[in-house]
Structure formats: structure tokens, C-alpha cells
Design brief:
The complex is a heterodimer of chains A (111) and B (114).
Chain A lengths: L2 E4 L4 E4 L4 E3 L1 E4 L5 E7 L5 E7 L5 E4 L2 E4 L9 E3 L8 E8 L5 E3 L3 E6 L1
Parallel strand pairs in A: 2-12
Antiparallel strand pairs in A: 1-4, 3-9, 5-6, 5-10, 7-8, 8-9, 10-11, 10-12
Chain B lengths: L4 E3 L2 E4 L5 E6 L6 E7 L5 E8 L2 E4 L8 E5 L5 E5 L8 E8 L8 E2 L3 E5 L1
Parallel strand pairs in B: 2-11
Antiparallel strand pairs in B: 1-3, 3-8, 4-5, 4-9, 5-6, 7-8, 9-10, 9-11
Classes of the chains: A mainly beta (111), B mainly beta (114).
């Protein structure tokens, strides 16, 4: 079945540091890939998505590129802020199938 | 409605009681999902609906859990004879389509079983 693996947290960075959160997936066919974010005390919300190979999703300074050859969708941001502290979930969805989420990676950004 | 609405937002119950959690998806969204999030944990898939049918019930933890959706809209997740390990936040999400559609999440229903 489909599955998502992402790096274990927590990740602690200083403000303005570079962020990478790794995500790899196993899926049949050509799934769509997503990053969701859960800020403290809030519900999950979509951060960015990519629906086909080589697509780059971007939002709020975050980027992720759909790499079919490495089955990866790593999340990156060049300069993190304290307000980026949250839990980040990588997810996939195949045609007619359920959404599958990774375990989440907690990010803490220190001033 | 404007967003996914879940009720109750908080529920405290005694072990052995039955509980019902309700989800009202975004109007027109055909797909509806239930997940469970335990403290500090990721999202555990429970069940999803396409219209009123549930093609995948594989995530329901036991036969104490059931869910239904009527009229292609509101869904109810029922937990019978609750146990302490059922304590979690139950999240509902809806999507306009099953494949590439974005999931819109509700605020969740926090269940505490004493």
C-alpha cells in the first residue's frame, strides 16, 4: 500500500537558518504530494502541493519539488522565522485512494 | 458552510459509554475523511467516504468504531463502549475530489475517556 516516510523530529533551528525536512514515499501510479502544517493550537492546513513529476509547490517561502526518480518531496525554506514553528506533515493521495500522511516533524525556531 | 465543522469540540466521557462525533463538511465536497491524532502523534487514518459509501474501512481500530454518512453530507463517527486508549483528537476533513483535491480540516473533536 501507499506510505509516507519523513524525518523524525523534533528539529530545532535558529532564526534565519536553512530548513530541510525530508519526505519519501511509496505509491502505485502517480500520486499527488502535499505538505500540511499544524501551527500550535490550530487545525491542519495545506502548505503546498504538487500533482505531477518535476512540479514545484511553493507557499510562504517554502518549496518542495516532486521527484519521481527518488520518490521524494523534501520541504525547504531558505530562512526560517519563529512563526514557522509548527508540525509539518508530508502526505500523498493517489487516484481514487485515501490520503496517507507521514508521522509529522515538529519544528521549533528560536529567536 | 464556510468550513468543515465538527462537534462537539470537547467531550469527556466515562469508560464504557458510547460517543458520537459529528462532521459537517464543506458544501459540495464529495469526499470526507476521518483521522485520529493522539497526543504528540501523527495522523491515523480511520475511514473515508466518497458520497455515502465507504470504500476503505481498513483504518477503523476495532468493531467498536463505526461511521456513516447520509445525504452525501454530514457524517457521524460512533465509538461504542469507549476505552481510555480511545482518548485522542478526532479530525474530519473534506475534499472536492478524491485524487488531487486539497483536504480541508475541521478543528477536531477532543475526546477524553476517564
Amino acid at each position: 500500500g501507499n506510505s509516507v516516510t519523513q524525518m523524525e523530529g523534533p528539529v530545532t533551528l535558529s532564526e534565519e537558518a536553512f530548513l530541510t525536512i525530508n519526505c519519501t514515499y511509496t505509491a502505485t501510479g502517480y500520486p499527488s504530494l502535499f505538505w500540511y502544517v499544524q501551527y500550535p493550537g490550530e487545525g491542519l492546513q495545506l502548505l503546498l502541493k504538487a500533482t505531477k513529476a518535476d512540479d514545484k509547490g511553493s507557499n510562504k517561502g517554502f518549496e518542495a519539488t516532486y521527484r519521481k526518480e527518488t520518490t521524494s518531496f523534501h520541504l525547504e525554506k531558505g530562512s526560517v522565522q519563529v512563526s514557522d514553528s509548527a508540525v509539518y506533515f508530508c502526505a500523498l493521495s493517489g487516484y481514487g485512494q485515501n490520503f496517507v500522511f507521514g508521522p509529522g516533524t515538529r519544528l521549533s525556531v528560536l529567536p | 458552510g464556510a468550513g468543515v465543522s465538527q462537534s462537539p469540540s470537547n467531550k469527556v466521557t466515562e469508560k464504557g459509554k458510547d460517543v458520537e462525533l459529528r462532521c459537517d463538511p464543506i458544501s459540495g465536497h464529495t469526499a470526507l475523511y476521518w483521522y485520529r491524532q493522539s497526543l504528540g502523534q501523527g495522523l491515523e487514518f480511520l475511514i473515508y467516504f466518497q458520497g455515502n459509501s465507504a470504500p476503505d474501512k481498513s483504518g477503523l481500530p476495532s468493531d467498536r468504531f463505526s461511521a456513516e454518512r447520509t445525504g452525501g453530507s454530514v457524517s457521524t463517527l460512533t465509538i461504542q463502549r469507549t476505552q481510555q486508549e480511545d482518548s485522542a483528537v478526532y479530525l474530519c476533513a473534506s475534499s472536492a475530489t478524491l485524487n488531487t483535491g486539497e483536504l480541508f480540516f475541521g478543528e477536531g473533536s477532543r475526546l477524553t475517556v476517564l
